[in-house]
């Protein structure tokens, strides 16, 4: 709606942002055939704060992506809780139980 | 020239590559920050417009520039990444007005292929990550912790190899990027990824969009609440988010830059390849995007960056034309344009070619560049020093002094010009026809020499001669009072201001007189031990008509003394040292600082800062301006005071950022100068030189002057022909609509008014590649030779070209001869009365022969194969130096007897060349596409063949700029006696609009300056923690090595910007006097 109102008012450039209404309020357009050459002071720092605090000298992790993913997988494995022990331990291992009949037949061979 | 070279910037880069807006210098202040390749500029938005605060040189080439604000910060920080894989985060410390480094680091990887489409550096809008795409298949992340501190960076594998753009999206719970890429079937798609901090990996993002516009090249992230991304193509613009997809077709265009207008991201400015500015509007209902609209606003320079500033004012940064400040008007003007250009900022880049000429024939070199690209192409005339625009001139030999006077003290204009000769004084005034004619001031003496004149209070005029001081009414012109010198004494030197007179007679008598209404009161007399050589009472304090101090220069003890008026109390005595007497002293103030200038009889100038309260003289500095005595005089121009130093090498002394600058005046010799501001010639100077009196206005006071000749097309080659006073250029024009979009021309221009005189259109697909003015053996005429190339779409390398020979007849180009070649004619050189052409991989020599019918033709004589592409050729005598596309530099020789060209030696490195130059018979200079300069030397005396055939690299240096051309020559006027004029120089032009000077120094001076450079490195720190030593190290893809045999003049000359204390420290460390060191460095600044 707001957008449509703007168009009705006749300009797509209506309501341009203004952060400080004073900015450019006294600007006098210069002669376009005589371009300005702004000559600001050149900065030559002589202070010691051109170096950041030691912990802000950033480097890249040395581990490469592949190694990192290996480690990460390994870590994941360690982190993952081991399979919880079954409540029916006996039942699960049921078929490993010694079966007298078969063994006897084997012996019989 | 030699291998010991000094490289210095005469014109800093002007091409704007990046810009951003934010609160950088304070939470309340809005700043525009501009990157110009190796420098950033910080500007402040003010009611008057943009105010430049600081120009910050960086020891790196800027790849990305972003302002951002971490949580809890009141103002923005600046993130900069360099092409050399360094980054830094800068913060403005407003207490000390210094830039401090918050963080920095090296983000290079040992392996990895550099991205083809440039480096990408982005910051998450919620400040969780910095993202960098520097190598194919890798995305580097630098995380922020919750205090806004950066942590260790890590890489994430990015499946997409041909990335065109990456942006962080707004309004995402997890940091999310959108990647615009091309697949191996050349189709373009956008994909999104979330960055998982824990896994250090990408997780598939919320959406993707396949099969976009084939020209899609740019992503614009849209802020909350709309979010999503705009995908800018050549035919369509698409808005894409997790829940909406909108597209709008556009007129075919390539968008080069964008700028967000509204904070909510509903409007954007888009700048295209033709310099058109469009407004892109996202229409929406609440947070739902309903459509896109594109509206043409108008035309600007071709933008490389767009920043909306405030109140409808927008900065257009350009690397192809001048940067601009534009205003967006609510309603279109008569041409339908909403754009009003309210300011332009000069850009010389890209300098594709240039020539050095002396158009005014004064011994002053000027550089004429082919600048800009496409429709923003222009020629620029770049000249060092300050020009005088002559308004009127009259022959008047023997002038001994000049002063201008008003007919009433509050008159705006001067009426009289008093001109003194050895035994008479003439008064000139403007008549009704605005001509200077003789007139009379009855009360003045006209049969004697005048020593000094001045306007005085109560509408009076003062004339001082060797016998008297005369006070005259400026209205009746009659004598009101006079003071006579005591019998037996004559006045030797005198000075005055509106209410005071100070004069010295023989025998060291100093007399101080005050001027009243019709009165001259001798207030004080002092007897000095020696004769007075010069004196001054120019008021520098608050009272413009009264000076509290007098400066007096002395014979015999060679001193300058400061006296307090009216008592003539001596408060300071400064020994000048040496045996040269002071010839002119001047008290003056620049930018609120008082100075004493003292000119010596040998062309040296001493300057001191003057404490007007105590008379103390501090910070003594010495410069050499010329070789003859100097006369100092103040004048005003554009509301600022400057000093004119008249001598054999006239200069203007002015102050910029509280530093004194000496600028050459482009006149050969000036004996006297006085300001003469008349109705007919406002703001003018009267100048006495070489038997003439000239009235002229003075250029704007700055070191380098640039004049722009817009030509509306892209000039690629330029050449000057002295005999016909013309320039010829090869240029191309882009037809905006037609299928066959480019047309190439050879154009002839007048070298005075730069009007096109004549045009020769080249064939379809035919490019002008080289141009030369030359003459041939047995032919008195001069010709323009043009080398061309047929660039056919189906061919990889051109297989056909032409050499065209033109004569200039009555201001027209006349084709005299034409020769077809089997390839592109990359270079043409005049060579022993013949023509040497570089054609694809071959060097070919042509002679100019007479046919039986009396016409001439180019006939092939001999050639030399063995290059990949012989792009750049320079010759010297029989030597031919070839810069190859990828095989560095080789040296050929033409053997007259055999009529053959043979290879003598080559550099076996694989440097991709961009320009070559010849320093001397054995030493050659090259620039490569890794922005290095290097010198190679051949061993002509070596005993073994293989040693003779191998050139040794003797100098290496990282310039950080892409050089397109070297030319011998100088920007400054050469004087036979001055020390600096013995130093041979070369000029180079670069893509970023840099004009540089390379000077060959004597080895001992080189050694001295190298020591200074080493000391300077310890004192001047690299912004963002970047190291100067590393920056200047030679580097290409294969290796890196410390700079050798090249010095960084920019660093060395910044010595003059240091505080006195730092200067003294350095001088002490080098075991030299600080004054000598200043003088030596100051002299170097006069090379450019």
From TrEMBL, chain A:
Give the superkingdom in one word. Eukaryota
UniProt-annotated stretches for the region Disordered: 1-57, 73-109
User: Spans of biased composition, class Basic and acidic residues?
Assistant: 73-95
GO terms of biological process kind: positive regulation of proteasomal ubiquitin-dependent protein catabolic process
Q: Which residues form the DET1- and DDB1-associated protein domain?
A: 11-75
Q: Which Pfam families match?
A: DDA1
Name the InterPro entries on file.
Answer: DDA1-like, DDA1_dom
Comp. bias (Polar residues)? 23-36, 100-109
An example Gene Ontology CC term for this record: Cul4-RING E3 ubiquitin ligase complex
Family label: Belongs to the DDA1 family.
Entry protein name:
DET1- and DDB1-associated protein 1 isoform X1
Q: Which organism is it from?
A: Raphanus sativus (Radish)
Q: What lineage is this protein's organism placed in?
A: Eukaryota, Viridiplantae, Streptophyta, Embryophyta, Tracheophyta
Report which gene this protein is encoded by: LOC108851584
Automatic annotation (TrEMBL), chain B:
Q: Can you give the residue ranges of the RSE1/DDB1/CPSF1 first beta-propeller domain?
A: 15-344
Matching InterPro entries, A to Z? Beta-prop_RSE1/DDB1/CPSF1_1st, Beta-prop_RSE1/DDB1/CPSF1_2nd, Quinoprotein_ADH-like_sf, RSE1/DDB1/CFT1, RSE1/DDB1/CPSF1_C, WD40/YVTN_repeat-like_dom_sf
GO MF terms held by the record: nucleic acid binding
Task: State the UniProt keywords alphabetically.
Answer: DNA damage, DNA repair, Nucleus, Phytochrome signaling pathway
Q: Would you kindly state one Gene Ontology biological process term found in this protein's UniProt entry? A: DNA repair
The RSE1/DDB1/CPSF1 second beta-propeller domain extends over 389-698
Main location as per UniProt: nucleus
The chain positions of domain RSE1/DDB1/CPSF1 C-terminal read: 745-1057
Is-annotated flag, keyword Phosphoprotein?
A: no
Give the CC-aspect GO terms: nucleus
Location(s), subcellular: Nucleus
**PANTHER family, from UniProt?**
DNA REPAIR/RNA PROCESSING CPSF FAMILY
Q: Which family does it belong to?
A: Belongs to the DDB1 family.
List the protein's name: DNA damage-binding protein 1
Q: Which organism is it from?
A: Raphanus sativus
Read off the lineage from the record. Answer: Eukaryota, Viridiplantae, Streptophyta, Embryophyta, Tracheophyta
């Amino acid at each position: 709606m707001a957008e449509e109102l703007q168009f009705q008012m006749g300009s797509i450039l209506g309501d341009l942002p203004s952060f400080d209404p004073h900015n450019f309020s006294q600007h006098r357009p210069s002669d376009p055939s005589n371009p300005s050459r702004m000559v600001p002071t050149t900065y030559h720092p002589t202070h010691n704060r051109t170096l950041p605090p030691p912990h802000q000298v950033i480097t890249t992790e040395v581990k490469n992506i592949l190694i990192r993913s290996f480690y990460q997988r390994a870590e994941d494995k360690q982190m993952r809780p081991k399979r919880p022990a079954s409540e029916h331990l006996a039942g699960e291992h049921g078929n490993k139980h010694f079966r007298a009949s078969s063994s006897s037949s084997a012996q019989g061979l | 020239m030699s291998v010991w070279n000094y490289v210095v910037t005469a014109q800093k880069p002007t091409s704007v590559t990046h810009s951003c807006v934010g609160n950088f210098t304070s939470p309340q202040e809005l700043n525009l920050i501009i990157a110009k390749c190796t420098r950033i500029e910080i500007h402040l938005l003010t009611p008057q417009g943009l105010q430049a605060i600081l120009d910050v040189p960086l020891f790196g080439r800027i790849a990305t520039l972003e302002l951002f604000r971490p949580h809890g910060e009141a103002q923005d920080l600046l993130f900069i990444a360099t092409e050399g894989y360094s980054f830094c985060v800068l913060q403005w410390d407003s207490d000390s007005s210094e830039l401090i480094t918050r963080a920095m680091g090296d983000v290079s990887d040992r392996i990895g292929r550099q991205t083809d489409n440039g480096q990408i550096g982005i910051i998450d809008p919620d400040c969780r990550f910095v993202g960098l795409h520097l190598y194919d298949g890798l995305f580097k992340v630098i995380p922020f912790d919750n205090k806004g501190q950066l942590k260790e960076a890590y890489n994430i594998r990015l499946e997409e190899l041909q990335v065109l753009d990456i942006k962080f999206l707004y309004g995402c719970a997890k940091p999310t990027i959108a990647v615009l890429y091309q697949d191996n079937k050349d189709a373009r798609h956008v994909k999104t990824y979330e960055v998982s901090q824990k896994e250090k990996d990408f997780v598939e993002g919320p959406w993707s969009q396949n099969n976009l516009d084939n020209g899609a090249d740019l992503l614009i992230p849209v802020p909350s609440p709309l979010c999503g991304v705009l995908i800018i193509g050549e035919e369509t613009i698409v808005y894409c988010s997790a829940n909406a997809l909108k597209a709008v077709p556009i007129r075919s265009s390539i968008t080069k830059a964008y700028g967000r207008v509204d904070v909510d991201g509903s409007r954007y400015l888009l700048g295209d390849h033709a310099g058109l500015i469009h407004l892109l509007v996202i229409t929406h209902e609440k947070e739902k995007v309903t459509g896109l609209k594109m509206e043409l606003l108008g035309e600007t320079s071709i933008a490389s960056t767009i920043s909306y500033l405030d109140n409808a004012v927008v900065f257009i940064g350009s690397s192809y034309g001048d940067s601009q400040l534009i205003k967006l008007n609510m309603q279109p003007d008569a041409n339908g344009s909403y754009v009003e250009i309210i300011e332009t900022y000069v850009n010389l880049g890209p300098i594709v070619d240039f020539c050095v000429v002396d158009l005014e024939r004064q011994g002053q070199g000027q550089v004429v560049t082919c600048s800009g690209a496409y429709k923003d192409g222009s020629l620029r005339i770049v000249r060092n020093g300050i020009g005088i625009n002559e308004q009127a001139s009259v022959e008047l030999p023997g002038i001994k002094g000049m002063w201008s006077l008003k007919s009433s003290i509050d008159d705006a204009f001067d009426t009289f010009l008093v001109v003194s000769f050895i035994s008479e004084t003439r008064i000139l005034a403007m008549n009704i026809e605005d001509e200077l004619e003789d007139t009379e001031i009855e009360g003045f003496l006209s049969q004697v020499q005048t020593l000094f004149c001045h306007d005085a209070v109560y509408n009076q005029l003062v004339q001082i001669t060797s016998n008297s001081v005369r006070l005259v009414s400026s209205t009746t012109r009659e004598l009101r009072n006079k003071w006579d010198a005591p019998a037996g004494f004559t006045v030797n030197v005198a000075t005055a201001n509106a209410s005071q007179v100070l004069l010295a007679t023989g025998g060291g008598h100093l007399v101080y007189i005050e001027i009243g209404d019709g009165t001259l009161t001798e207030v004080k007399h002092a007897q000095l031990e020696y004769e007075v050589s010069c004196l001054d009472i120019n008021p520098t304090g608050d009272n413009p008509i009264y000076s509290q101090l007098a400066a007096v220069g002395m014979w015999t003890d060679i001193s300058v003394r400061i006296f307090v008026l009216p008592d003539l109390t001596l408060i300071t005595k400064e020994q000048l040292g040496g045996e040269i007497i002071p010839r002119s002293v001047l008290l003056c103030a620049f930018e609120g600082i008082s100075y004493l200038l003292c000119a010596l009889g040998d062309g040296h100038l001493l300057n001191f800062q003057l404490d007007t309260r105590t008379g103390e003289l501090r910070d003594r500095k010495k410069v050499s301006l010329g070789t003859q005595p100097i006369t100092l005089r103040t004048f005003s121009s554009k509301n600022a005071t400057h000093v004119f130093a008249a001598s054999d090498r006239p200069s203007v002394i002015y102050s910029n950022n509280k530093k004194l600058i000496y600028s050459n005046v482009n006149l050969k010799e000036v004996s006297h100068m006085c300001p003469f501001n008349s109705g007919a010639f406002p703001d003018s100077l009267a100048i006495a030189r070489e038997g003439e009196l000239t009235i002229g206005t003075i250029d704007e006071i700055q070191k380098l002057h640039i004049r722009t000749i817009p030509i509306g097309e892209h000039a690629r080659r330029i050449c000057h022909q002295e005999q016909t006073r013309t320039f010829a250029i090869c240029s191309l024009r882009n037809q905006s609509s037609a299928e066959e979009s480019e047309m190439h021309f050879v154009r002839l221009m007048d070298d005075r008014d730069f009007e096109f005189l004549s045009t020769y259109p080249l064939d379809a697909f035919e490019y002008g590649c080289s141009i030369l003015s030359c003459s041939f053996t047995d032919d008195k005429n001069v010709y323009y030779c043009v080398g061309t190339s047929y660039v056919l779409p189906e061919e990889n390398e051109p297989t056909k070209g032409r050499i065209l020979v033109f004569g200039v007849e009555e201001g027209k180009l006349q084709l005299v001869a034409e020769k077809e070649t089997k390839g592109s004619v990359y270079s043409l050189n005049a060579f022993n009365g013949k023509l040497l052409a570089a054609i694809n991989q071959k060097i070919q020599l042509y002679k100019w022969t007479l046919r039986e019918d009396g016409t001439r033709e180019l006939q092939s004589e001999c050639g030399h194969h063995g290059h990949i592409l012989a792009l750049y050729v320079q010759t010297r005598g029989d030597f031919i130096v070839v810069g190859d596309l990828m095989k560095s530099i080789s040296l050929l020789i033409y053997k007259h007897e055999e009529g053959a060209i043979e290879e003598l030696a080559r550099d076996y490195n694989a440097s991709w060349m961009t320009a070559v130059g010849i320093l001397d018979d054995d030493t050659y200079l090259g620039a490569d596409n890794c922005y290095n300069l290097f010198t190679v030397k051949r061993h002509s005396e070596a005993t073994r063949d293989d040693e003779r055939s191998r050139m040794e690299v003797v100098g290496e240096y990282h310039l950080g700029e892409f050089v397109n051309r070297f030319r011998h020559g100088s920007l400054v006027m050469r004087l036979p006696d001055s020390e600096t004029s013995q130093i041979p120089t070369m000029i180079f032009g670069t893509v970023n609009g840099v004009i540089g000077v390379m000077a060959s120094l004597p080895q001992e001076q080189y050694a001295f300056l190298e020591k200074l450079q080493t000391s300077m490195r310890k004192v001047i720190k690299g912004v963002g923690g970047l190291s100067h030593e590393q920056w200047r190290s030679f580097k290409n893809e294969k290796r890196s090595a410390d700079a050798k045999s090249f010095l960084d003049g920019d660093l060395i000359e910044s010595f003059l910007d240091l505080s006195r204390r730092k200067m003294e420290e350095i001088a002490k460390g080098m075991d030299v006097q600080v004054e000598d060191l200043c003088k030596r460095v100051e002299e170097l600044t006069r090379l450019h």
